[in-house]
Amino acid sequence: MTIIKQEDLVESVADALQFISYFHPKDFVDAMHQAYLQEESQAAKDAMAQILVNSRMCAEGRRPICQDTGIVTIFVKVGMDVTWEGEGSVSDMINEGVRRAYLHPDNILRASILADPLGERKNTGDNTPAVIHYDIVEGDTVEIDVAAKGGGSENKSKMVMLNPSDSLVDWVLETLPTMGAGWCPPGMLGIGVGGTAEKSAVLAKEVLMESIDIHELKARGPSNRLEELRLELYEKVNQLGIGAQGLGGLTTVLDVKIKDFPTHAASKPVTMIPNCAATRHAHFVLDGSGPALQTQPSLSDWPEISWDVGPSARRVNLDTLKKTDMLEWKPGETLLLSGKLLTGRDAAHKRIQSLLESGEGLPNGVDFTNRFIYYVGPVDAVRDEAVGPAGPTTATRMDKFTDMMLEKAGLIGMIGKAERGPATIDSIAKHQAVYLMAVGGAAYLVSKAITGSKIVAFPELGMEAIHEFEVHDMPVTVAVDTSGESVHSTGPAKWKSLIAQKIQVV
Predict the structure, then answer these.
(1) Residue 178 lies in a domain
(2) Is pLDDT of 177 > 90?
(3) Shared domain check, 440 and 375
(4) Is the same domain home to 329 and 280?
(5) How far apart are CA 378 and CA 388, in angstroms?
(6) DSSP string covering 113-146, please?
(7) What angle (nearest 5°) sits at the alpha carbon of residue 392, between those of residues 207 and 40?
(8) Average pLDDT, the chain
(9) For residue 36, what are the domain limits?
(10) How many domains does the chain have?
């Protein structure tokens, strides 16, 4: 009989969550580097370079890979010959580990979890509770998989109840293009098939804990039907041309994972969950001998890649920018922004809408007239940082507020990640505004361009408060220009066609 002490579990969970916040798994780094070397789309290659440079910076600086430090998901396999020494439940112990990890003073992680999701939506302040799945198994150890899943990729999860005769491949190829780029490709797809609706979702999440090994599978060949499907989907998804950050390119997924379970004769439940470029997971085993701590990787595991915007980048002073200046900007063009901009996410936009509709007006010190907004919820600063990792959040969530912000608040530009919807693009064109894209998955790299930060409104919203950032040479790409042309439409369409032509030639 093995005795697992409370403190050993707490310490192991806290250590794993800190570890995965700044260390990508080696298999992910290797796969992303291989995709980078093979990429022919310059926009996609630049995005992957930023992701890899950011990854190394985070490993060196011990700061989060992404500003969205995720909702914690944990899979626990408890051996039947295990007993526990401590107070409270195992879930209480795990959540104490989460609490310690996210409040660690040397590497504060962003608290993103809201209680009362249908009502007040108040931040719990320490990123608890975790989502925990238990399995009671034979043995005398406790095996734990820990992951931190970002909201942008989690929001793109898809579930369907297919007919038994329906094709899984057809459904994936029809569905993936509708998911947009908010999941920050290239990443992994986890697919769960069978059981019941909720079982397929758990399978999809669980299979994302596995290492990227598609290239090894290609080399040795498939040994069963699931491996055949993995290879087929890997090839066909990448032929869609969606590419890194949805800009168009050769690599949309680094791997496709599938896990199945027996199901009812009348059913074929399927869930697809994407993992983003901030893939974060770790594994450990408790055997009663003490805490199980992660082993630090070698920095030699990261490729030596430099990223330079090049001489063609346009430098923009946000403090003197005129709306007519933006008429010259072209889709896909790289800009380096300097000056002051405001931030805002979902909760702030909702507040702004209420204030404008009531006639009360915006708080003192908040004026969006002829200014840019950055869709971001930054990590708190530590040591001498102006701000912690501060990558973009998914812009699509702000679509329903965009016309209001352009029409009534006087905004002229927005910065985020992923595509905008058709109505929003029409509004951007109508107001001759622009939408710029920062790379999702490069949060620490982006934060180095932020030289000053202060909260100017709604401090009670925590990371959703409105900040004013002072930036210097912040790299962005023109995603939607003043005429309404979107690179998220033109880029993937171009590369889907080019890939099809390559296949025909072969």
Answers:
(1) yes
(2) yes
(3) yes
(4) no
(5) 6
(6) -EESTTTT-EE-SS-PPPEEEEEEESSS-EEEEE
(7) 70
(8) 96
(9) 2-287
(10) 2
